[in-house]
Amino acid sequence: MQKRIIFHIDVNSAFLSWTSVWRIKNGKSDLRLVPAVISGDPNKRTSVVLAKSVPAKKYSIKTGEPVSMALRKCPGLVTAEPDFKLYSKYSADFMNICRDYTPSLEKFSIDECFLDMSGTENIYPDIIAAAYEIKDRIKNELGFTVNVGIGSNKLLAKTASDFEKPDKVHTLFSEEIESKMWCLPVSDLLFLGKATAQKLKNISINTIGELAAADVKTLKALVGAKAGEQLHNYANGIDDSPVDDSPREVKSYGHSITVEENVTDIRTANSLLLSLTDAAASRMRAGGCKAYNISVNIRDSAFKNRSHQRALSSPTDVTQDIYKVVKALFSELWHGEPLRLLGVTLSDLTKDGGEQISLFGTDKSASSEKLKKVDAAVDSIRNKFGDSKILLGGALGAKRPKKK
Q1: Residue 248's pLDDT is what?
Q2: Can the peptide bond before residue 55 be classed as cis, meaning omega within 30 degrees of 0?
Q3: What is the pLDDT of residue 378?
Q4: Surface-to-core class of residue 341, CB atoms within 10 Å of its CB (0-12 exposed, 13-18 middle, 19+ buried)
Q5: Which of 35, 130, 149, 175 is most buried, most CB within 10 Å of its CB?
Q6: By the 8 A CB rule, do 149 and 172 touch?
Q7: Cβ atoms within 10 Å, residue 169
């Protein structure tokens, strides 16, 4: 049986690194060398830390905490806003380099991927040297560093890449599990959450090695049959999941926005909903899809979430037609309570290119065709000049939202 060789490649402090590379190219300072974070506007109460530099860690700054708290810990902290369009570009660039070494690549997230290097021994007789070559190419050609974990399955490769950082290559093959993995705290096991880790500690299982040796029946009684079996397998380095290099099908297009001040009037709500609808519909058209289902979700000031959806008799990708349904759903859903979040999702997608029937009767099909032409013109302008260059009239003053 052919020996499996899996790489896991993870960008070190991706958002901060990618912003730093862009800053250096534009004559600005490298955020990786100073206490710095990537976050939203530090003057907004909703802004949180998305990424932090190594120097920022010395101030106990944590990812996910409010920027205001981080600034109290380090008054000289440098902040920079995220640029997801830039991040998408760098993500594609580093994965393209990885594809030079094997076509079997699975994108695990925007800043990490798995490579199946099994059977490449004739091309790369020294597999560790190949890992260093990939790491150094990314650093030299793109300007940021990665960690490469090498293992006999995805679990071990991912675990290895989380060893000492940054800019390192680590191995974790089956014969190294006892010496390299079983000594780690149980909380370091992939996909093991805080609640489960605490349950294990409550029965004196503190390391991955102790978990590997634990009675499977005890684990099943503690966390359930399926989860208990998985814990036992993972602790023993057992993972048969393949590197999935098939394109992932998009199942929905959605946007949501958390507001700085509570929404309390219908005009503001509708303006935001139009902006959300416009953003989601624009992305859906770019993907060549139409939606059979439209949903609206809200969160009030007490953090209670509610949603409402409607199935359509025929699919649509027309912004204004979708917006009419969104407004109707919202009017049924909202009872005047202050809102913190609004969201729109388009789902049950189809790529059927057949004739589109108006949602509001055949007599309006001509009007719908005109609206489709308007959408096409707007999409063309945005593709050429950027999202912010054109907004629908009712959305003026509303920020174009970020993807869900």
Answers
A1: 67
A2: no
A3: 55
A4: middle
A5: 149
A6: yes
A7: 22
> How many C-beta atoms lie closer than 10 Å to residue 335's C-beta?
8
- Answer whether 207's CB lies under 8 Å from 173's CB: no
pLDDT in tens, 366-391: 455 555 555 555 555 445 444 433 34
Helix H or strand E segment including 321? helix 319-333
Report angle CA 18, 22, 26 to the nearest 5 degrees. Answer: 165
Angle at the Cα of 20 from the Cα atoms of 22 and 163, rounded to 5 degrees:
130
Check: CB of residue 115 under 8 Å from CB of residue 105: yes
Packing angle, helices 266-286 and 319-333, rounded to 10:
140
Q: Which of 106, 112, 175, 261 is catalytic?
A: 112
Report DSSP state, residue 233: H
Q: How far is CA 383 from the centre of its chain?
A: 23
Cβ-defined contacts of 85-89 (< 8 Å, 24+): 86/18, 86/19, 86/22, 87/14, 87/15, 87/18
User: How far is it, in rounded angstroms, from Cα 186 to Cα 209?
Assistant: 8
Is 112 part of the annotated catalytic residue set? yes
Name the pTM for this structure.
Answer: 0.66
